[in-house]
């Protein structure tokens, strides 16, 4: 296997859910159960350098949880506390990070009552995060927003810069990117939990939005950041949409990844991903791989590592989500594991050192996210995930 630069329902705690059958929502092939577990190609920032800028991350907990922290993608390189004046992600003293956890009106999908807010100097929070991550550069930072969040309910974190001079003192809200044409419900103000086309094992109602009028109006899809983004940095034929990256610290001190991955615009050639310890029995009839360049994904193979059953197919080659129908379906029972491999190239999602420290259950057999590389590609770690999947339904979520 080789790495190349790119050319261009269960409980949130991860416990097994030994249900006897799939819910009606899963059988309808919509909602989180039908969300494919991959879909991102790179990561991009939104510098909060104006007082009226707002970044919104809408999320839906799978089950009721009590938290004291909310983690989100954050970067301030260029500020005094990190490589001062040498990058555009931050400046000056980093600004005043204000994070507000809010309820969402289920009828409009817009922010409603504020639940909790913290305001803290962004360099202070950056340094606190570095200290917690063994001096590693943090990919995510947090705000202290204690709350009990109801499962299946929409909430949002709204991030702003409360500094008196935000143009000279700022940080960036940093989120992974997906092709807008492939982003489905995450590129709009989707209100249906049963909507189709979700990515990254997200609820279809989850998204990132952006405002330049202090939250009076919100922008979605390709307009959901401080500037427009594109796949492969500058492929204007493929505008990009920022997608959520977030997590929680629960009141008992453990952490939980809501969507822990991001990406570096890197391809993985001849790679394999393992999906461990299925929480629901599934019969897989299709395979898929994601590539954001003209390199083909090649032939895709699924193997039930518990029974040895396997099948392969070759999708049409080209850019995007490349899917094919298996000549013979492959089933997995609760507790069984399987691999999906490709002979070509696919994107790879990243879990850097600080992310692995923050979310130690990601990429393990008993966490919420159980995908890993049994034989990591050079330059990656086992918890970086090649963009390969089996469908039509997830073995980990049933609604």
Automatic annotation (TrEMBL):
<protein>
    <submittedName>
        <fullName>Uncharacterized protein</fullName>
    </submittedName>
</protein>
């Amino acid at each position: 296997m080789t790495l190349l630069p790119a050319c261009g329902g269960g409980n949130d705690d991860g416990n097994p859910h030994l249900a006897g059958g799939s819910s009606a929502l899963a059988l309808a092939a919509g909602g989180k159960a039908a969300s494919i577990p991959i879909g991102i190609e790179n990561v991009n920032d939104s510098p909060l350098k104006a007082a009226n800028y707002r970044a919104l991350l809408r999320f839906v907990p799978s089950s009721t949880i009590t938290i004291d922290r909310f983690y989100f993608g954050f970067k301030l390189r260029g500020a005094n506390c990190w490589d001062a004046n040498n990058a555009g992600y931050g400046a000056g003293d980093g600004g005043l990070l204000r994070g507000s956890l809010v309820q969402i009106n289920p009828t409009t999908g817009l922010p409603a009552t504020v639940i909790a807010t913290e305001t803290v100097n962004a360099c202070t929070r950056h340094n606190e995060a570095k200290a917690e991550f063994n001096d590693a550069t943090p990919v995510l930072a947090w705000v202290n927003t204690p709350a009990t969040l109801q499962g299946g309910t929409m909430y949002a974190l709204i991030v702003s810069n409360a500094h008196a001079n935000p143009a000279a003192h700022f940080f960036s809200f940093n989120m992974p990117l997906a092709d807008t044409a492939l982003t489905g419900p995450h590129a709009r103000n989707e209100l249906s939990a049963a909507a189709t086309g979700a990515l990254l094992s997200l609820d279809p109602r989850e998204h990132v939005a952006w405002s330049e009028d202090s939250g009076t109006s919100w922008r979605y899809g390709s307009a959901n950041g401080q500037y427009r983004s594109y796949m492969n940095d500058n492929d204007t034929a493929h505008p990009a949409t920022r997608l959520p990256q977030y997590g929680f610290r629960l009141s008992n001190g453990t952490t939980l990844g809501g969507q822990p991955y991001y990406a570096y615009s890197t391809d993985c050639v001849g790679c394999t991903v393992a999906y461990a310890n299925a929480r629901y029995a599934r019969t897989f009839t299709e395979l898929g791989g994601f590539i954001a360049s003209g390199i083909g994904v090649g032939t895709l193979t699924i193997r039930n590592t518990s029974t040895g059953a396997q099948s392969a197919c070759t999708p049409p080659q080209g850019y995007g989500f490349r899917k094919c129908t298996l000549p013979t379906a492959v089933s997995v029972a609760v507790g069984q594991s399987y691999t999906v491999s490709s002979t070509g190239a696919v994107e790879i999602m990243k879990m850097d050192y600080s992310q692995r420290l923050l979310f130690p259950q990601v990429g393990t057999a008993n966490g919420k996210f159980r995908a890993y590389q049994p034989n990591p590609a050079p330059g990656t770690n086992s918890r970086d995930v090649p963009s390969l999947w089996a469908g039509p339904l997830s073995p980990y979520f049933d609604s």
